[in-house]
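// run 5 | inverse folding | seed 20
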């Protein structure tokens, strides 16, 4: 019996839950479990009726101690039978044996008390009622009627051989019928309550919810549960009722359940707890048990009786998807790290032969190894030019890989902005002139010194100017405007080149990505320029904004803090700077402007 349900005034539900817990969990059908509960209940209660009804018939033959021993034997044998039925879930042989024993007991009780006119004759009604009560079958009730007739006939045959004792002639004869009536009333009450719940006249959880919902006491004992909750736990709702939820919760999650119940008692209404519960799974061998992830959502708290109503949501699929997502992220991160290490290793291996190629080709161009013919000088010049281009690509790959790996170190220090900008402009003037472009570099008044990594700032300017010159047709114009605003130095590179379409917006800043239109594909490059610029700007806590329109040119705006970065300062050696792990922020797009990649 569930003590909590009895304490809360629902003693019929408590009795029903108590018998439910006696039946083995291997019996899954609700109808069969109900029949077994009734049979076990009858077997457990029958000795209280049989002993006072039958033993007085033998009072004249045996002594009191023997009668007491016989009464104990009746209780022991009957309860052992009830335990066997509850443990095995098999009532095939128990029902006929119990009915036969009942016929013998009723016939002896009637014969020993004096015949058909005695109160013991009322017990014959039990032979009709109990088969119908256990199986809910009219055929079993008809069989019980036959058994009652057989009991009357057998009592008439046994009556001459029994001597009536003074117990049979006293009020004692009414004890057995009264006990039977007293034991029948609770069963009828339980049946009436169940029928009212099933008919909707009495609102249980099943009448209110179709989802898995349980009702808990403040101590965590399950007071009521829907059929859906029973299916989720792999048990019938009756097997859940009367048990503590802590029994079904994984040991590691019981503290979380205690905290959740404490929060509910404290008046919090937004309690939602994820934990693992133990469920029975028919797919496992011998109907084994496993743990399933669920979430408990608070539905209602009854302040009157302290009952807590919770919805149980199966989150095992969500947890599986979450685990797969985490594994996929870990795999992607691992692939990214492996790629960066591979690029760094290959780049380092390429630099040594490239330096040799460039060095020896320059020596040959300067006639250090002897004079060359015009045709030979042209070929050597192409080798040197290609070597310098490939070396610049290798250096860019190394820089991008170090930025992605978080090992690119910067050394902020004060420097004169005008000098750094003029140096970059002079370096790019020859390339602009070769492509018949007008290059203008302007440093407005008020821009003097700033704190940053000068080498990185010059690399940002050179990459942006290179992109602008590369994607601007002959006769166009490229400009670099430097000014101070809102505590930052702004570098604005603008051109009237080919621009970019909105379809390429998502490719901005991705390494090894170039524009996909036919016009831009004719230009050389590995697609690392803007990716490198984005990383360097992020290391300086700066901002990068790019606006572009197809056929109307592009404007790139870089804003770097005047006083230098606040978190990414590195005191590293020049040869091998030790950078910090920095999360490179995404580019910020404003007013749905179109962007352009390197």
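// decoded
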């Amino acid at each position: 019996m569930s003590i909590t349900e009895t304490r809360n005034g629902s003693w019929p539900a408590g009795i029903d839950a108590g018998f439910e817990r006696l039946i083995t969990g291997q019996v899954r059908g609700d109808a069969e479990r109900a029949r077994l509960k009734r049979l076990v209940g009858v077997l457990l209660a029958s000795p209280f009726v049989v002993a006072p009804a039958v033993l007085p018939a033998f009072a004249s033959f045996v002594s009191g101690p023997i009668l007491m021993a016989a009464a104990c034997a009746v209780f022991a044998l009957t309860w052992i039978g009830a335990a066997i039925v509850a443990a095995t879930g098999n009532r095939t042989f128990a029902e006929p044996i119990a009915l036969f024993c009942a016929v013998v007991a009723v016939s002896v009780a009637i014969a020993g008390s004096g015949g058909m006119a005695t109160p013991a004759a009322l017990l014959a009604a039990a032979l009709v009622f109990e088969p119908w009560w256990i199986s809910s079958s009219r055929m079993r009730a008809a069989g019980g009627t036959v058994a009652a007739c057989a009991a009357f006939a057998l009592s008439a045959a046994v009556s001459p051989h029994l001597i009536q004792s003074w117990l049979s002639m006293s009020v004692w004869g009414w004890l057995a019928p009264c006990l039977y009536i007293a034991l029948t009333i609770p069963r009828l009450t339980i049946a009436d309550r169940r029928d009212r719940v099933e008919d909707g006249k009495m609102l249980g959880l099943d009448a209110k919810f179709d989802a898995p919902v349980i009702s808990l006491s403040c101590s965590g004992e399950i007071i009521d549960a829907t059929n859906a909750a029973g299916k989720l736990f792999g048990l019938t709702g009756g097997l859940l009722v009367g048990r503590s939820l802590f029994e079904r919760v994984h040991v590691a999650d019981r503290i979380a359940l205690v905290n959740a119940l404490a929060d509910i008692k404290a008046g919090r209404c937004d309690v939602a707890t994820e934990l693992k519960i133990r469920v029975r799974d028919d797919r496992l061998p011998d109907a084994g048990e496993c743990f399933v992830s669920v979430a408990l959502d608070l539905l209602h708290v009854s302040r009157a009786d302290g009952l807590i109503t919770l919805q149980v949501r199966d989150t095992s699929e969500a947890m599986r998807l979450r685990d797969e997502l985490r594994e996929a992220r870990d795999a992607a991160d691992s692939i990214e790290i492996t790629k960066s290490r591979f690029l760094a290793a290959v780049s380092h291996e390429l630099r040594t032969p490239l330096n040799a190629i460039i060095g020896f080709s320059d020596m040959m161009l300067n006639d250090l190894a002897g004079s060359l013919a015009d045709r030979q000088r042209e070929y050597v010049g192409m080798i040197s030019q290609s070597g310098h281009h490939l070396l610049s690509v290798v250096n860019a790959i190394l820089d991008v890989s170090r930025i992605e790996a978080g090992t690119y170190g910067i050394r902020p220090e004060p420097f004169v902005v005008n000098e750094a900008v003029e140096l970059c402009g002079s370096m790019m003037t020859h390339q602009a002139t070769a492509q018949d472009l007008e290059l203008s570099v302007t440093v407005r008044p008020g821009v003097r010194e700033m704190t940053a990594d000068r080498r990185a700032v010059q690399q940002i300017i050179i990459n942006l100017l290179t992109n602008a010159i590369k994607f601007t047709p002959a006769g166009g114009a490229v400009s670099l405007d430097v000014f101070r605003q809102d505590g930052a130095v702004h570098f604005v590179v603008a051109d009237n080149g080919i621009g970019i379409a909105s379809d390429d917006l998502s490719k901005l800043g991705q390494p090894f990505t170039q524009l996909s239109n036919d016009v831009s594909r004719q230009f050389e490059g590995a697609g690392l320029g803007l990716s490198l610029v984005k990383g360097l700007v992020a290391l300086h806590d700066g901002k990068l904004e790019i606006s572009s329109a197809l056929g109307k040119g592009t404007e790139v705006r870089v804003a770097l803090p005047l006083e230098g970065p606040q978190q990414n300062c590195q005191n590293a050696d020049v040869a091998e700077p030790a950078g910090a792990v920095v999360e490179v922020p995404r580019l910020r797009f404003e007013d749905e402007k179109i962007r352009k990649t390197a």
